[in-house]
Amino acid sequence: MAVRTRTRIHRLRVPNVSEIDFGRLRSGRLECLQGAMRRNGYAVCLLSNPASVRYATGTDVMHVWSAENFARYAVVPADGQPILFEYPGSIHVSQRFVADVRPAFGWGAATPEARVRSFGEGMRSVLRELGHSDEPLAVDRLDTPQYLSLGEEGIRIVDVSPAVFEAREVKTLEEIDLMAINGGIGDAILAEFEAAIRPGIREYELLAVLGDALLRRHGEVLFTRLTASGTNTNPWMSEAHDKAVMPGDVVGVDTDANGYEGYVIDVSRTFLCGDQPTPEQKEAYQAGYEHVTSMVELVKPGMTFGELACAAKPLPNKFKEQRYGVMMHQVGLEDGRNEGPGIPSRAADGTPFAWQDREFKQGMICCFEAYCGEVGAPFGIKLEDQVLIGPDGAELLCTYPYDERFLR
Fold first, then answer.
1. pLDDT number for residue 8
2. Does 43-159 match 169-406 in CATH topology?
3. What angle do CA 44, 48, 54 make, to 5 degrees?
């Protein structure tokens, strides 16, 4: 089988970090969000999802911890500057980027009810200050104390998701530059990961290689632990364990990382511990390769999600029962819904789906992927490419090569 020449590998220039205007990055993202808020009829929003707070304010503090604890949030008007409510011990950090930083109302399980009520009272005061006392508050997520506190103040709540989708789906030029930098980091961490594969190494040791390679390049965090070998690769989604890699095992990895400045690196490759794959391994790899690369080659601005789903090279029936949940998803500061909708794998069968008429746009960042593992087989193959939708089609962000041993 001939391996396709990856003609777009060198088209996307990777800039130096010093070339990125971070002030313009922050102001451009805020402008996108506020424009989307106005078009969706939202006068003011409350954001507590860490990635959305970062998108609106340019700040990020203790990202993983903040995702699990209600510790920081931002009130963003459709016109004017955001107000950041920061974890008190980190106010000095965020004041470097945001003019109006105030202490956040935080709580835990034993927080007195009066302090919980103070959150709603504080939001009512802020809405009055911004001149939006009678407007609904568009929110991304609330915990129970927040929700009850706002309700006691009579604050109407609506879902901010439509504006967040619209703002974040098409990336600014500065975001694209950061994604290109992270594409290079992705190539480097995959190279170190592959080089570390040997008989006897354990899955969690390979995961440590991935994490070390990421952090040494100013990346931030691995948000999954999807490293698996041999029988742990079927079905997919087993995270790194203490299994030792054995000769002849396939080793699958999904990078699933927040890289430099938080932008996502999401590429999957499957490697071989050995010299020669089996015919069954080659068959599965080739099916996944054809599925992914056909989407990368076909996608263009203006094509609908439904059109691509129908045009992509289909997976053989033997792999459909355990196929990956999506053919395509979008990424940016997050991997998932806040960056825009994707294409479910069932769409390849002609099954209607909610976003089938949505069009690909220049400036989107998309991940095309496939999993090929027959039910009961002792292995499975996971492959994924991350691309920028350019004026003429897909431009690879991570360019790490496929393993030609599976494709011969």
1. 45
2. no
3. 90
Q: What percent of the chain has pLDDT over 90?
A: 86
Contacts of residue 23, defined as CB under 8 A and 6 or more positions apart, other chains included, come to none
Whether 169 has a pLDDT exceeding 60, the answer reads: yes
Q: List C-alpha distances in Å: 21 to 175, 177, 282, 300, 377.
A: 10, 10, 45, 28, 50
Mean pLDDT computed over 276-283: 98
Task: Using alpha carbons, select from 245, 284, 311, 292 the residue that is nearest to residue 406.
Answer: 284
Give Cα 3 to chain centroid, integer Å.
28
Instruction: List the domain boundaries for the chain.
Output: 43-159, 169-406
Structure tokens at 218: 């100013």
CATH H-level, domain 169-406: superfamily: Creatinase/methionine aminopeptidase superfamily (3.90.230.10)
Place of tokens 């995961």: 207
Instruction: Give 10's pLDDT tier (boundaries 50, 70, 90).
Output: very low
Structural domain 43-159, CATH architecture: 3-Layer(aba) Sandwich (3.40)
pLDDT score of 4: 53
SS3 percent helix, strand, coil of the chain, rounded to 5, is 40, 20, 40
Across the chain, which distance is largest between two alpha carbons, in Å?
69
Phi, psi at 286, each rounded to 5°: -65, -35
Confidence of residue 69 (pLDDT cuts 50, 70, 90): confident
pTM: 0.93
3: pLDDT strictly greater than 80: no
